[in-house]
Amino acid sequence: MNPLKVTGKVYWLGINDRRKFLFENMWPLDKGVAYNCYLILDNMTALVDTVELRSGGDFVSKVDAMLNGRRLDFLIINHMEPDHSGEIKAIIDKYPGVKIVGNLKTFKIIEAYWGIKDNLHIVDDGDTLDLGYHKLKFVMTPWVHWPETMMTYDQTDAVLFSGDAFGSFGTLDGGVFDDEINFAYYEDEMRRYFSNIVGKYCNMVQKAFKKLEGVPVKAICPTHGPVWRTDPQKVLGLYDKWSKYQTEEGVVIIYASMYGNTEEVADYIARQLVENGITNIRVFDVSRTHISHLINEIWKYKGVMLGSCAYNSEMFPLMENLTRELEHMGVKDHLLGLFGSYSWNGGGVKNLTKFAENIGWEMAAQPADIFGMPNDEKLANCKLLAEGMAVKLKALRK
Ligand SMILES: Cc1cc2nc3c(=O)[nH]c(=O)nc-3n(C[C@H](O)[C@H](O)[C@H](O)COP(=O)(O)O)c2cc1C
């Protein structure tokens, strides 16, 4: 296959992984995932990141074919997570003189993983590396998404090698560049990747944005998903929005229900929201939909309604898992509604209320906890809850 040129002397080298079911052994890969790295064939040659170990046949041979007899001068490591650093050792074994470019934190991790201590070229914020045509500058972006994470910026052609930032789940099915794909296909997976993988570090994403303020960016080369060479502003805008917790009008209703009572309330509330003028409504069963999709939906919509039956004096365990994760991620700026059903002393809504206090989201109205089965009388509070949510959402319209 011909090497795919990004710009100047930069080439994309990516591997599609359709075999892995779970990314980080946790996140379902319904559409697979791509590991991207980049080879710069300048006066000096440089490989920016590698791929997951043995994910794409003989990776080293692919690099070697692209080098076409030249030696590899630099291996730049923006991120040490194994889905990008897996082939480091194989590359070093093949090109023993290669200089490994990273920061102090990178090198601690390299030593811990591979015992590598030689040929290290340490860089810090603002340091540069001249390859001939391309003049690289290093930008430290800790916690986007590990402590050692950095980005490499090519000052010549304004290319940002961004690591995991601006990445997406989903394999590259022929189209690699943003002008060759249907963005709608990737947008959801991109937000799912952002919210679940990077979302805990929104403040660090904003700090990285500050560092890049005023820097021209003509292409973004992330380590997953499409390469943004035509409209990089689009993903810059999305990341800015998502990392500021800016959402759309709409409500995601997530319920935990064993015998259908809480589920019935969820459907009732959904209908009430529609009758009160809200149209973007998504209802999910927490037992059926993977938490990564639920978090993705929460990142999209301003309104969140959580419902749980009582379960051994607690909320339903899978709902507890979701709420714990939301608290751990420190998700901000939502309107919250709570509901549930119980048979004796409760537990679902009681504990959801504790979650509400911890996370600090604004409550749409009083929680609605239903004793036993819902009926018209018992649903009156749920009607108020939906109305409260609709009123608050509509008040935000510009
Ligand atoms: C395993 C189990 C544990 C339960 N624990 C409680 C509880 O601690 N407190 C309570 O009031 N009801 C408890 N219940 C009763 C349910 O919460 C109640 O039947 C509720 O209406 C079920 O809602 P659902 O139809 O949405 O599942 C429990 C039921 C089961 C099966």
TrEMBL record:
GO terms for molecular function: electron transfer activity; FMN binding; metal ion binding; oxidoreductase activity. Residues 251-390 form the Flavodoxin-like domain. InterPro entries: Flavodoxin/NO_synth, Flavodoxin_CS, Flavoprotein-like_sf, Metallo-B-lactamas, ODP_dom, RibonucZ/Hydroxyglut_hydro, Rubredoxin-O_OxRdtase. SMART domains: Lactamase_B (SM00849). Pfam families: Flavodoxin_1 (PF00258), ODP (PF19583). Its cofactor is FMN. In the N-terminal section; belongs to the zinc metallo-hydrolase group 3 family. PANTHER family: ANAEROBIC NITRIC OXIDE REDUCTASE FLAVORUBREDOXIN. This is Flavorubredoxin. The lineage of its organism: Bacteria, Pseudomonadati, Bacteroidota, Bacteroidia, Bacteroidales.
